[in-house]
What does this fold into?
Amino acid sequence: MTDIEDRIQQIAQVLEQLDDSQVPRNIRILSKDAVEQHLLNKDKEMDLRLGMTASILDDIFNDANLPIYYGPLCLQVQTALETLLAEVRRS
It folds into this structure.
């Protein structure tokens, strides 16, 4: 597994933290779909996987129902995704 794939796996594990009963169901579903349908979907191009996941995470962050203590988590993951995306585009 490449370094980028390792980092994607770590991001997926962090996003699993949103699968919490204190998080509204629509946000849990969005997060799970982002991971399964985009981030970990090896049938798609890497830049599409990262970009779509970052976009969905932006929607989650801007959701008024997101518990406030999950906001920083979303921002950190989004930053990591954007860093990975920049690395992928450079290579």
About this structure: The mean pLDDT is 93. The first helix runs from residue 3 to 15. The two ends are 17 Å apart (CA to CA).
